[in-house]
Every structure is written in structure tokens, then in C-alpha cells.
Amino acid sequence: MSAAIDLKGVTKQFNDVTAVKDVDVSIAHGEIFGILGPSGSGKSTLLRIIDFLETPDTGKLFFDGVEICAGTVAAGKKMREIGMVLQKPVVLNRSVANNLAYSLFIRGWDEKKIDARVDKELRRCGLSDRRRKNARTLSGGEMQRLSFARSTVYGPKILLLDEFAANLDPRNVGLLEEQIRRYSSEDPSRTVVIVTHNIFQAKRLCTRLALMWDGEIVEISDKNAFFENPRDPRSSAFVKGDLVY
User: Closest by alpha carbon to 154, among 111, 117, 193?
Assistant: First the structure.
């Protein structure tokens, strides 16, 4: 079976800074893949390339073995199968319920099906009692839970998470991590890619990990090997907390 996501020789440069350098990585269907690394190592840029928000200068991007280029009709269709949650929550200036309903409306769902799915997702993310409130009046943790629900309510095949819990309290972190496990377990073909510098969160959630350093992926291995027997000295130092960045 072909990989869910396959990047080959991907490079991205901003002026004189090379953010991503000749990256090769395959991410399988059904795995929760973590991209670790210090700030400025290229993690978020790589995630934005996968979501077609950035166009690589060189290299190719494949989904299910089919090459797709940013800016094409195929890329637009694929984006509708991808959910993305950013570090800073982004919500629409409308009710909590309408934030979720909008994701379904633009995909052509009928009204009864939308209402049923919105009710279900509001219960899951603990926001049923906030359904009529304007989403922009929620607390930071509630807003991020809503952002997550809006990105998954339509059942995307791929979920991209960019430091999604970096600014949250432990309770909201726990609630969101449980939602990630739920999203993944409901359909074994779903793929999650998490960008984080939080090694503890990566250890709790991820099945396989990559370390990015100065735009390059220096190591990829399963979770146990990454934390217990890293091959690259930079991985070892990162896991031990010996690196200052």
C-alpha cells in the first residue's frame, strides 16, 4: 500500500533562509506521526507544505502514491480532505454551533445531517452549553477545542496539528489529546501529523517520530527507539533536554 503522505526532496527557501532542506519522509495510513525539533527548525513550514499553504521550491509531494502540486485543481480537492489546527485558535465571528455547521454546509451536507453531527461534536468537545454563544467570547481553551472540532467534524482523512496545545492548561491539553485518540481510533486509515517541541506530548500520542534540525530531518524512528535508543546525537540531546534553543 502507498503511503498516505510522501515527500521527496522537498526544499523551501525564504529569501536567503532555507527553512526546509531536501526532506524525504513517508507517513503511513493510520499512524500518528510526530515532528519534533527546536523553534525555527522548519517544522511548521513542512506542515504548511503538506497542507498546500506553501509551495516547495524543489521536490515532490504525493498522497496515496499520486503526485499533487500546490495551486492545482487536485490540490484544492485534496485540501478538503485535510483538517488543520494551529497554535493560535481561529474561529468565525458567529455562534459556536454555526462554526461547526459551516464546515459541513460548504461540503454540501443536508440540514438534518448537519444538525445531528453538530450536536454530537458539541457533546464530544464539551461545548454543548456554549452552542449559542459567539465563538469569539470563549476562553482560550474552549476556543481551541472548538477549532479542533471544526477541523474534524467532517471526518478528514488527514489531520495536521501545529503546536495545537502549546498555550493551554493541563485540563484542556488532556481533553484535546483524548479527542485526537478518538479521531484516530474511529477510522484506522486516518493519519495524524503533529508538530511539537513538547517531548512528553509526543511520547503520549505518537507512534513514530522525526527530529528536524536546521530544516533537515536528522532521524526518523518508532517512538520507543526514538526515546530509548536514538541514533543521532542531536536526537539524544533533544530528548535529554541538554540542548539550549
Answer: 117
Distance CA 166, CA 144 (A): 11
Closest residue by Cα to residue 227 from 157, 205, 46: 205
Cell numbers given for 16 = 536567503
> What domains lie within the chain, and their CATH numbers?
5-240 (3.40.50.300)
Structure confidence by residue, pLDDT tens digits, 23-60? 999 999 999 999 999 888 999 999 999 999 999 999 99
Residues 6+ apart with CB under 8 A from 99: 91, 92, 135, 146, 150
DSSP string, 180-206: HHHHHHH-TT-EEEEE-S-HHHHHHH-
In whole angstroms, give the CA distance from residue 229 to residue 153. 38
**Residue 245 clears pLDDT 70, i.e. is over it:** no
pTM comes to 0.93
Q: Distance between terminal CA atoms of the chain?
A: 39
